[in-house]
Design brief:
single chain; alpha+beta; three-stranded antiparallel sheet; 7 strands; 16% strand
């Protein structure tokens, strides 16, 4: 009892001024056992009723500020992105260089191959010019009716053809030699007065520049108006490729080309239209026979 139970100071006869009692720092709840052992290690084993002197506990380490860690993270991310971009740019530049050299080499090889091929073609043909690769003329030419005549009972039509094909490398117009070409002659009212299917492969049309003159012969089954009543100035000539005829083409006189018959139903219809036109055309001349008896010459009706 000679010592103070609070501070451990010896109690003497003369009163001493009261010493301030130090306030013990609270020990964190998570580490009570560790703090007690620290006291025991410094001051010896704990005695009953002994009071350990206060021991300051080190405060936990302060966490870094959020702004600082975020700034460091952003700098690292920017650095990584910059490195990736630099690597991509270098890779693209290298790839472009390789592509450029390969393209140039392939173009040079292609030019050399083409030159070699042309030289080979010249050698095989034995000519200084390259071999021709002109395509045949398959487009039907435009046609005009120049004149009409007859050979016995057949109608002979003189046509002037204008080519619709490009010229060859030598400047000549390609020949027209298509087979199964339907040639129809119409009057100014659109009535078909002659029509047949011709084979120009047997007698190709050779153009002098862009035009050529041909003669076509129509049999009595292929035209339906007298030749002297056909007006060449207003007539229209139409050529159609890929048409099929019936029967075989007959033989024509001179340089004229003969053709085969068209479909029988079309021929019958054109004949009927021709008779109707003929009646209208001859009406004024035949009006004087209205009061005079005469022999009926012919009649025709479609069945």
């Amino acid at each position: 009892m000679r010592f103070c139970q609070q501070c451990g100071a010896e109690l003497s006869a003369s009163p001493q001024p009261a010493q301030p009692v130090p306030t013990a720092q609270p020990v964190p709840a998570a580490q009570p056992y560790q703090a007690v052992q620290q006291y025991a290690g410094q001051y010896g084993a704990a005695q009953p009723g002994a009071v350990f002197p206060p021991q300051a506990v080190q405060p936990p380490a302060q966490p870094s500020r959020p702004g600082e860690s975020a700034g460091k993270g952003k700098k690292k991310t920017a650095l990584i992105v910059g490195i990736i971009i630099a690597v991509l740019v270098v890779a693209l530049a290298a790839g472009f260089g390789v592509w450029w050299f390969m393209l140039r080499d392939s173009g040079t090889q292609s030019a050399q191959t083409q030159s070699t091929s042309q030289q080979s073609g010249k050698t095989k043909s034995g000519d200084s010019k390259a071999a021709k690769d002109d395509k045949p003329c398959t487009a039907a030419p435009d046609a005009e009716l120049s004149s009409v005549d007859h050979s016995d009972a057949n109608l002979v039509a003189q046509l002037q053809l204008t080519s619709n094909c490009a010229s060859t490398k030598d400047g000549d117009t390609a020949e027209f030699k298509e087979s199964d070409v339907k040639v129809s002659i119409k009057d100014d009212e659109g009535n078909v007065i002659a029509s047949a299917v011709f084979d120009f492969s047997k007698q190709p049309v050779k153009f002098n520049g862009e035009t050529a003159n041909v003669a076509l012969e129509f049999t009595t089954r292929q035209y339906w108006r007298p030749y002297d009543q056909i007006e060449t100035g207003s007539a229209e000539v139409i050529l159609q490729t890929g048409q099929s005829g019936t029967g075989e083409a007959g033989s024509a006189d001179g340089d004229a080309l003969a053709g085969s018959d068209i479909d029988s139903e079309d021929a019958e219809r054109y004949a009927q239209l021709a008779l109707s036109w003929q009646l209208k055309h001859d009406e004024s001349a035949a009006s004087r026979f209205y009061t005079t008896y005469t022999t009926q010459l012919s009649s025709k009706k479609t069945t």
